[in-house]
Design a protein that fits this description.
It contains four helices and eight strands, in the order E-H-E-E-E-H-E-H-E-E-E-H. It has a four-stranded mixed β-sheet with strand order 1-4-3-2, covered by helices on one side. A four-stranded mixed β-sheet has the order 5-8-7-6. The protein is globular. The mean pLDDT is 96.
Length: 132
Amino acid sequence: MDLVSIRIITGDIARLVGFYEKATGVPAAWATEDFAELTTPRATLAIGSTRTVPLFAPGSARPADNHSVIIEFLVDDVDRVHADLAGFVPDFVTEPTTMPWGNRSLLLRDPDGNLVNFFTPVTPAAIAKFAR
């Protein structure tokens, strides 16, 4: 088994895709007007409109209703990302902070309220964990 993507369902796909393109610098590949993907070397963030939900099961997903998942992006310099996003993100959940497990993390919310973490490994153990 291989985890290949996480999908966000949104009521405003153009807004959310635009946010992630700006925040990550990764261009989206649009399959249809209701589905786009931002692909990185490690994983894909898929974004689907609410119109795609009935294809799986009506009512099975609700946009802007996430309270338990954090979408995480490994970046070279989290402090630079913070500076780059300072005029774009209206309110950060946390400023760059070094966590006990060795990552320096920046936590924010996307326009739908989903938590997003940009992080950079800073301790030898954390750096080794993410080395490629």
